[in-house]
Design goal:
The complex is a heterodimer of chains A (179) and B (383). Helices cover 16% and strands 31% of the residues of chain A. Chain A contains 3 helices and 10 strands. Chain B is mainly α. Chain B contains 13 helices and 4 strands. In chain B, strand 3 and strand 4 form a beta hairpin. In chain B, helix 2 packs antiparallel against helix 6, helix 2 crosses helix 7 and helix 4 packs across helix 7. Chain B starts with 7 loop residues before the first helix and ends in an 11-residue tail after the last helix. Classes of the chains: A alpha+beta (179), B mainly alpha (383). At the A-B interface, strand 4 of A face helix 9 of B.
């Protein structure tokens, strides 16, 4: 059901290398995904959106950027990325004054590569309704995310606990209960 | 651990002073922390600022075997540097041979710990904690109760100490006091900082190759909310519960019943180790023990508050099962069913490969520089 909006940013040689890597990866034991031959990490935005997306870090870098600084146990981290509301808008699912009718009966299911899932109502993600926004982060302290964070993660700076600031983010599934 | 009532007043004063002090930033005239970015500084009580001289005095006291009733034990006897300041025993043994019901806790990054004992949420200050092994009578550890004056005379009569006390407490008319002894020991303990493990170099030091691919997969499993979930109690940069840092001492200790026991009857954990319950008397605190830092965990076996789990492999069995089952004997029971078990200790699937990866990750937390750092070692030992 996903119509990929793939941006042809990579050079042909790099694309060939990436395709070869993807093929090799598919032949490798499936238990562990992280290796030098792993395919480029992406975020998939799909479901009830006009334009499903598969976004790379380069795609996110070209979008309106936002910054969140957190302090956790005395360690300060500056995350940069794109507000989830702007990601949804890029998929044709506008929030705010342009929000579609019945959008508030919808939700977004965020999934991580490890199987962790967090559900957000559309209203929670709408900056016209609440300031408890979710950042889809791809850098921390100006370095690409890695390790337990995965390449992408969510950061909810207003949350009291980190349970919804999921690491290893892989996809956002939009579901409208009334279409 | 029991300290006689006459000692409670000075202990209380020390605790109060230290608690108050953490709200203020203490001057540190000549002391430089060896803390790499991005790690924060620990809190320092305003009435016990760090100084090079005080740390050096504290190191001498920490390793001084004269600070015990038998003249053969020091703080370092139960907190050995090579074992990340533990002793390799399930339960520590005091200077009179009395066995402690619990094991020696690692002092790795103890400066950040919001609570200092296995099961006492009220013990926050290192200065106050140091009095417990010195003067405690149940159990007896160093056994100095009633011998304080004798010990201070020994200190005063030692040429090395005369030099060290004069430098560390230059403004004190009478520097040879128990208060200054524990202030110096606490200052030394605050320098026991471990930030140089392979995992630190990988995660914070810009060295992608510092740990193996297996260890990286193990870290992902450890920090996964869906898989291991281990980070929930052993998380953040210190692989522990919440920490206290300079400017923010609001964190409290993290204590959890992990389903290690489930005895029949009202007390599901074997006495006297009933956890926080032993302090509060509340049923819901039964079996709650502190989640320690996992830094240097490979050298601190045996594991758990009573040393009843011999290996890290067996620790993984315990958590993967969501609690330990003891089939026979006086401690028989299904820990997974302990009514006061923490809800997040609910078990997880662990394949052979994931177990190997997790153990590989835990091994990357061993900071060999910390274990060998000569600034922590025994200054009395002649080469």
């Amino acid at each position: 059901m996903t119509a990929r909006l793939v941006r042809p940013r990579r050079r042909p040689l790099l694309a060939l290398a990436a395709a070869t890597a993807a093929l090799l990866f598919s032949l490798a034991p499936a238990a562990h995904a992280q290796s030098a031959l792993a395919p480029e990490p992406t975020i998939t935005v799909r479901g009830d959106v006009p334009t499903p997306l598969v976004l790379t870090a380069a795609d996110l870098a070209a979008m309106p950027r936002a910054t969140v600084t957190t302090t956790n146990n005395g360690m300060t981290t500056t995350y940069r990325g794109v507000w989830v509301a702007d990601v949804l808008a890029k998929a044709g699912f506008a929030l705010g004054p342009a929000a579609r009718r019945n959008s508030l009966s919808g939700y977004v299911l965020a999934r991580a590569t490890d199987g962790y899932q967090v559900l957000f109502s559309i209203g929670e993600l709408d900056p016209a309704i609440t300031d408890g926004q979710a950042l889809l982060a791809d850098t921390a302290n100006d370095q690409p995310l890695f390790a337990e964070n995965g390449r992408f993660r969510l950061v909810l700076p207003k949350d009291k606990r980190g349970a919804r600031s999921m690491r290893m983010l892989a996809s956002l599934d939009v579901v409208l209960l009334i279409k | 651990m029991r300290i006689r009532p006459r000692l409670l007043i000075p202990v209380a004063l020390l605790v109060a002073a230290a608690t108050l002090g953490t709200a203020l930033r203490a001057p540190e005239p000549d002391f430089a922390w060896r803390i790499p970015a991005p790690f924060p500084r620990p809190p320092v009580p305003a009435d016990n600022p760090m100084s090079v001289a005080k740390v050096e005095l504290g190191r001498h006291l920490f390793h001084d075997e004269r600070m015990s009733v038998n003249g053969r034990q020091s703080c370092a006897s139960c907190h050995q540097q090579a074992l990340a300041f533990t002793d390799g025993l399930g339960q520590a043994v005091g200077a009179t041979g009395m066995r402690h019901p619990r094991g020696s806790m690692s002092l790795t990054n103890v400066a950040y710990a919001p609570a200092l004992a296995w099961a006492d949420p009220t013990l926050h200050a290192l200065e106050a904690q140091a009095l417990v092994p010195m003067l405690g009578t149940d159990p007896i550890e160093l056994g100095l109760d009633g011998r304080e004056a004798e010990f201070l005379r020994t200190v005063r009569g030692d040429a090395t100490y005369r030099r060290l006390f004069a430098r560390a407490f230059a403004d004190d008319a009478e520097p040879y006091s128990l208060r200054n002894v524990v202030r110096a020991i606490a200052a030394f303990e605050r320098t026991l900082l471990s930030f140089r493990s392979p995992y630190d170099r990988y995660r914070y030091g810009g060295e992608p190759g510092a740990i193996s691919e297996s260890a990286k997969r193990g870290a992902a499993f450890f920090f996964s909310g869906q898989q291991g979930g281990c980070f929930q109690c052993h998380g953040r940069w210190n692989l522990s519960g919440g920490v206290r840092v300079e400017g923010d001492t609001s964190a409290e200790g993290t204590f959890a019943n992990t389903g290690l026991y489930n005895l029949a009857g009202a007390r599901s954990y074997p006495a006297p180790n009933t956890g926080v319950h032993a302090v509060t008397g509340r049923a819901e605190d039964m079996g709650r023990f502190r989640a320690p830092t996992l830094r240097n965990i490979t050298v601190t076996a045996p594991y758990m508050h009573d040393g009843s789990v011999a290996t890290l492999d067996a620790v993984l069995d315990h958590y993967a099962a969501g609690g330990r089952t003891i089939a026979t004997g006086p401690h028989a029971g299904v820990g997974r069913l302990n009514p006061h078990k923490a809800p997040n200790v609910d078990g997880f699937a662990l394949s052979v490969e994931q177990r190997r990866d997790l153990l590989a990750f835990l091994a990357t937390l061993t900071d060999t520089a910390f274990l060998r750092d000569t600034s922590f070692s025994d200054p009395w030992r002649r080469p």
